[in-house]
């Protein structure tokens, strides 16, 4: 048996008829940019996530750059975020000459809220938690800290479309949330894409202009902008994917529960509380000090795994100079222990059980 990490061909085949129909419809209409499908997509998301405003953009990274610019931050202003994330989390901040202030993570791999306060200075403008792998960061405490210090709360919701924290959807609890629609995300289109969601109408109006060169009409540009529009075609595909996402998120949660119940206790499993949230398990990340040999063992048994993320951002060559000797003990330790097991809504039960059997077998052999 071969267990793939993702299974795009299976997903495509499942939706092929609808996707082809949409492709033909958009082609015949000839609406490729800022068309009806995009409007429909934004409306659908707004209804689904119960948020006032949605803007479809080119990708998470461009979306976040626009958000930070629209919020009026200036060079050397500081944004508090984590190092245990994809490089883009800091890339978007650094792009505008802003300074990422990196906080360590707790055992659940999310921002350690107890370490935020001492990083706040006059230059701090926002906190940007990453809801890693679709498990929410502690939003109660994050909201409290941001309110007390008059900071914006910007949610890097790239992994967490459809996750709820208590009664509200991730991305709607802060001032603004940004999603990535990259194919590796649970909710995705057939290429790059991103979504900005907010209840702040002033911010919404600015972003709407910014994604299209600041143009109020065809000829008049009123503020700085760029080209970061979600393609009408991708939005059309997104409208089809949207019909499946809650079912697929639930399937992933079910797989995660099966993993958590049956995997050997020799591995540290994801920490989540179903009374507080419904994590969407964009990834299922375990921890073990035998990470590299387990990865190899699974590879030899034809099970694909991944590491999210093997090099913390403050240790990346691109940021080494900026962060110098910054020490984030958990982030650094975890980066050597974490392993993402295959999880996608198209996995068969037999594949999930095979992964469990092989992980447990590895530890049985290790014990001998
Ligand atoms: C946590 C996180 N933030 C941001 C991004 C960037 O998203 P995009 O590729 O849409 O710019 C990613 C993508 O992998 C991510 O995992």
Mind summarizing the main beta sheet?
Answer: 7 strands, mixed
Quickly name the level 1 CATH class of the largest domain.
Answer: Alpha Beta
* Protein structure class: alpha/beta
- Tell how many strands the DSSP assignment holds: 11
Helix content: 40-55%
Enumerate the spans where pLDDT stays under 50 for 5 or more consecutive residues.
Answer: none
Give your account of this protein's structure.
The chain is of the alpha/beta class and 368 residues long. It folds into 2 domains: 8-240, Type I PLP-dependent aspartate aminotransferase-like (Major domain) (Aspartate Aminotransferase, domain 2), CATH 3.40.640.10; 245-367, Aspartate Aminotransferase, domain 1. It contains 11 helices and 11 strands. The chain has helices at residues 8-29, 36-49, 60-70, 88-95, 139-148, 201-210, 232-262, 291-300, 317-323, 329-335, 349-367, and strands at 53-57, 78-82, 99-103, 124-127, 152-156, 164-165, 168-169, 176-180, 194-198, 284-287, 338-341. A 7-stranded mixed β-sheet has the order 1-9-8-5-4-2-3, sandwiched between helices. Strand 6 (164-165) and strand 7 form a beta hairpin. It is globular. The two termini are 26 Å apart. The protein binds pyridoxal-5'-phosphate.
């Amino acid at each position: 048996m071969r267990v793939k990490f993702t299974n795009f061909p299976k997903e495509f085949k499942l939706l092929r008829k609808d996707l082809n129909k949409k492709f033909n419809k958009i082609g015949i209409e000839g609406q490729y940019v800022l068309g009806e499908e995009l409007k429909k997509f934004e409306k659908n998301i707004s209804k689904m996530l119960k948020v006032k405003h949605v803007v479809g953009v080119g990708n998470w990274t461009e979306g976040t750059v626009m958000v930070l610019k629209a919020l009026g931050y200036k060079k050397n202003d500081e944004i508090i975020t984590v190092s245990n994330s994809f490089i883009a989390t800091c890339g978007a901040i650094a792009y505008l000459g802003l300074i990422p202030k990196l906080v360590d993570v707790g055992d659940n791999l999310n921002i350690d809220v107890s370490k935020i306060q001492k990083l706040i200075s006059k230059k701090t403008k926002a906190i940007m938690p990453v809801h890693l792998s679709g498990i929410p960061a502690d939003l109660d405490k994050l909201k409290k800290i941001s309110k007390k210090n008059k900071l914006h709360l910007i949610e890097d919701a790239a992994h967490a479309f459809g996750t709820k924290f208590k009664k509200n959807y991730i991305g709607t609890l802060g001032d603004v949330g940004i999603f990535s629609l990259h194919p590796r995300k649970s909710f995705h289109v057939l290429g790059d894409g991103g979504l900005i969601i907010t209840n702040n109408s002033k911010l919404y109006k600015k972003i709407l202009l910014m994604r299209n060169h600041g143009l109020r009409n065809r000829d008049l540009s009123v503020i700085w902008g760029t080209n970061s529009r979600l393609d009408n075609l991708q939005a059309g595909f997104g409208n089809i994917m949207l019909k499946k996402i809650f079912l697929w998120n639930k399937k992933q949660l079910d797989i995660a529960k099966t993993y958590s119940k049956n995997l050997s206790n020799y591995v540290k499993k994801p920490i989540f509380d179903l009374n507080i949230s419904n994590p969407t398990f964009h990834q299922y990340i375990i921890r073990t000090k035998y990470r590299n040999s387990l990865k190899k063992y699974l590879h030899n048994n034809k099970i694909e795994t991944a590491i999210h993320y093997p090099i913390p951002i403050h240790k990346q060559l691109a940021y080494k100079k900026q962060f110098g000797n910054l020490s984030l003990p958990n982030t650094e330790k975890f980066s050597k222990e974490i392993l993402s097991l295959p999880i996608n809504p198209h996995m068969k039960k037999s594949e999930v059980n095979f992964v469990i059997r092989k992980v447990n077998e590895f530890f049985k052999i290790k014990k001998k």
